[in-house]
Automatic annotation (TrEMBL):
GO terms for cellular component: cytoplasm. Residues 14-85 form the N-end aminoacyl transferase N-terminal domain. It comes from Stomoxys calcitrans. This is Arginyl-tRNA--protein transferase 1. The gene is 106095223. Residues 94-104 have a biased composition (Basic and acidic residues). Belongs to the R-transferase family.
Length: 510
């Protein structure tokens, strides 16, 4: 189905899962009955996120803890030392089944930076679950819409837009400059230049090598220097992750499958329940199968498989982690025209020593890199929201080549120390320094006429057509009572989703 159908709810207030404030998390929400991957890609590039079918966008100028959309350029991602330690620890465990002496200590230090398993945004609940996003869909009855009948009734009116993945994504000039700098970096940068008066400081590695050579010379032994791979030959993320050998004691199998409500199993719920109780101290009475189904299995995104897209297509997927034959973790992700977007991750707490939350993030970056080799535009990894006012959520900004979305101009900006200092001073920031820079998809009231409204089970009209149909006496009386508020809501909706989406998605008005 080529349509996105949304029911806009307007402003929403809820408890904040970060500062624990009551009714201070402010934003707007809508229910998506069905949504194309292209439309959701454009929504998250305007600061929206989904939890199941519920889509929400924080009002950063009013909310207690501003949410900034963050993404990582997977093609320019660089492994840190801590990332390598986690991968090596996993590979060691798979190889011999043993836990290292320092595993618990290392795991403790890593979780202080990044709480395991909480690398995604999830369903919000009023009792809170640690530091995850807390956004719950309002208790509004859903409308009874027959999507199949609607699709058949509008078969001839299908959009002739290009398939997802063939359009070039909007890129900020600052992003291009930074990426080109990263790609052209050499070990002899200005910081270590030998042109100055002071020679560069020796690294510990070089000092150890010199001491070893000195000992060999003192013993009358010939100097032997190991030929280790140069920096340019350093192993890739894929090589680090896929270091399994046939004789390994354990086998880790990661299966990527399309998500749908029928794939739910009791095994997955038992894993989710164990995770919530152990890691988040959740209330056992709240842990029901329907809750897991609602935000991990139900998705408005419809699986689409264009010829020039990824092998499995665009839509919602689960990465299932099997250790031998045991399900130990599940990552919920969306594969979209320009990115892999993280939704949620839960795992068996018995394997916390493997830092599965961080490990899954690296696996998802590897997935982006693999997909980018087939679909060049699909090269970003979206981590959800960066909440600088919550120290425990700053771990997301530690992935190299990360960018934040300007909440006003909707341009991307490298997450630099300068931006961090600005956020330290004021939790709300406009990242685009050009005061004249505006949202290129800005919606104005004059754009109202082309907003698409779904008015019944079989048809939709443009707003101007709807207004003309409503000029009879009965409609005039009705509009006199409620029309002004409805008009204001549509304008608000248009400003939040932007002009192209307001002219493409169907605003439910039944």
């Amino acid at each position: 189905m080529d349509f996105t159908i949304v029911d806009y709810y307007g402003p929403q207030k809820s408890k904040c899962g970060y500062c624990k404030g009551v009714q201070c998390s402010m934003g707007c929400g809508m229910h998506a009955y069905t949504m194309t991957p292209k439309d959701y890609q454009d929504l998250i590039d305007r600061g929206w996120r989904r939890s199941g079918h519920y889509c929400y966008k924080q009002d950063n100028t009013k909310t207690c803890c501003p949410h900034y959309t963050i993404k990582c350029d997977a093609l320019n991602f660089k492994l840190s030392k801590s990332h390598k330690k986690i991968i090596k620890r996993m590979n060691r465990f798979l190889r011999d089944g043993k836990r290292g002496k320092n595993d618990e200590e290392l795991n403790s230090s890593m979780t202080s930076e990044k709480p395991d398993g909480e690398n995604m945004e999830v369903e919000m609940n009023n009792e809170g679950c640690g530091i995850r996003d807390v956004v719950e869909a309002p208790n509004v009855p859903l409308k009874n819409i027959n999507l199949e009948a609607f699709a058949k009734a509008n078969e001839k009116g299908k959009s002739n837009e290009k398939q997802p993945g063939v359009q070039k994504p909007k890129t900020n000039a600052m992003e291009i400059d930074k990426n080109s700098t990263q790609n052209n970096e050499t070990p002899n940068n200005s910081k270590n230049s030998t042109d100055g008066a002071n020679p560069p400081c020796k690294k510990a590695k070089q000092m150890r090598l010199e001491r070893r050579l000195a000992k060999q010379a003192a013993k009358g032994l010939p100097a032997v220097i190991e030929n280790k791979p140069s920096k340019s030959q350093e192993k890739s993320l894929k090589e680090f992750l896929n270091d399994a050998k046939p004789d390994d004691k354990h086998k880790l199998n990661i299966v990527l499958v399309p998500s749908n409500k029928n794939m739910y199993t009791d095994t997955a719920f038992a894993l989710y329940r164990k995770y919530q109780l152990t890691i988040h101290n959740d209330n056992p009475e709240r842990l029901e199968p329907k809750k897991l189904q609602r935000f991990c299995y139900n998705s408005p995104l419809k699986l689409t498989k264009p010829s020039d897209g990824p092998p499995l297509g665009y839509g919602s997927f689960h990465q299932q982690y099997y250790l031998d034959d045991q399900l130990i973790a599940v990552a919920v992700i969306d594969i979209l025209p320009y990115c892999v977007s993280s939704v949620y991750f839960f795992y068996d707490p018995d394997y916390s020593f493997l830092s599965l939350g961080t490990y899954s993030s690296l696996r998802e970056i590897e997935l982006v890199q693999d997909l980018a080799s087939k679909v060049p535009a699909l090269k970003y990894y979206y981590m959800g929201f960066y909440i600088h006012s919550c120290p425990k959520m700053r771990y997301k900004g530690k992935l190299s080549a990360s960018y934040l979305l300007c909440p006003e101009a909707y341009t991307w900006h490298p997450l630099s120390d300068e931006i961090r200092l600005k956020l330290d001073a004021n939790k709300y920031q406009r990242f685009n320094d050009d005061p004249l820079a505006r949202d290129e998809n800005e919606f104005e009231e004059s754009d109202m006429d082309l907003v698409l409204l779904m008015i019944d089970q079989s048809s939709y009209v443009k707003y101007r057509q709807y207004r003309q149909r409503s000029m009879n006496l009965v409609a005039a009386i009705r509009n006199k009572i409620a029309g002004s508020d409805d008009h204001a809501a549509i304008v608000e909706y248009g400003k939040l989703v932007g002009k192209p989406l307001a002219h493409r998605m169907l605003y439910l008005k039944m």
